[in-house]
Amino acid sequence: MDERKREIYTYEAKWPIYGMNWSARADKPFRLALGSFLDDYTNKVEVVQLDESTESFISRGVFDHPYPTTKIMWMPDRKGDCPDLIATTGDYLRIWEVMDDGIQMKSLLNNNKSSEFCAPLTSFDWNDMDPNIIGTSSIDTTCTIWDVERQQARTQLIAHDKEVYDIAFARGTDIFASVGADGSVRMFDLRHLEHSTIIYETPGMQPLLRLAWNKQDHNYLAAMPMDSQKVIILDIRVPSIPAAELQGHGAALNSLAWAPHSSCHICTAGDDRQALIWDLSNMPKPVDEPILAYQAEAEVNQLQWSLLQPDWISIAFGQKVQILRV
């Protein structure tokens, strides 16, 4: 008898989902953190985990969060040696600790103690190699590099001419890139912050919303323009010219994720209700169509590829999360 496990599992939250991230700890498989998108001050973050014996998701805890999370990430700690931490951004960067008896805030990181006003944070990245480093991006044109243990900023820099929408570290602890409303992809080195490299600028300064480094080959990164149906693949060795443009969606894109275990696979998702996986192994030849397509029930707002279990991708649409075996 064929005992193949199910290819899709679905969880329905009590609210629309925007923030989402897979836990990286080997002792906590099939665990996700989900953030609400409610038009209220009080939003929610819920931790859910698939119970493989019952083939259903179980809630492992919920906590209140001011405003919707712009991003959620678990600490990149595969061995489980460190405390079980989640970071979130919204009005501030907050670190939360997940324990058996609940989830509580461990720290709130604020670099502007003199003012009551805070510039909202658009995104952040938790450094893979050194989990004591988090980089945040803000609408005030800055990026801030944080020391998590000391709960203070290591450095803050004006990264763009306009709002910064996303930040991502390359391999190692020093190189990161950012994108923003000025339409540029900029690369920085923490050892030489007096200058940055503009890798790419969009025609007409079309804002760039998201970027992601290739997990296996850090010469490549992907960027997603605002209100666009395409993803731009960039090779930092050949700046200013896209290595490829992925055009297969029928509506605006919302999310993208590189495969954690393959240098030539990337997934994209958007308002056409599709999640598409692309094979880039034949670049520089044009990449004309995806190798896999999944049709969701509604516009896909968020997409994440599991680092711990690279056979699984999660997508969020409406109040539902689905994990898909690829």
Task: Please render the helix and strand layout as text.
Elements: E1 8-12, E2 17-22, E3 31-36, E4 42-51, E5 56-66, E6 71-74, E7 85-89, E8 93-99, E9 102-109, E10 121-126, E11 133-138, E12 142-147, E13 152-158, E14 164-169, E15 175-180, E16 184-189, E17 197-201, E18 208-213, E19 220-225, E20 230-235, E21 244-247, E22 253-258, E23 265-270, E24 274-279, E25 292-295, E26 302-305, E27 312-317, E28 320-325
Antiparallel strand pairs: 1-28, 2-3, 3-4, 4-5, 6-7, 7-8, 8-9, 10-11, 11-12, 12-13, 14-15, 15-16, 16-17, 18-19, 19-20, 20-21, 22-23, 23-24, 24-25, 26-27, 27-28
TL;DR of this structure?
The chain is mainly beta and 326 residues long. The protein is built from no helices and 28 strands. Strand 26 and strand 27 (312-317) form a beta hairpin.
Description:
It is a single chain. This protein is mainly β and 326 residues long. The chain is 0% helix and 52% strand. The protein is built from no helices and 28 strands. The strands form seven sheets. It has a four-stranded antiparallel beta sheet, with no helix packed on it. Strand 12 and strand 13 form a beta hairpin. The two termini are 22 Å apart. The model has no long low-confidence stretch (mean pLDDT 94).
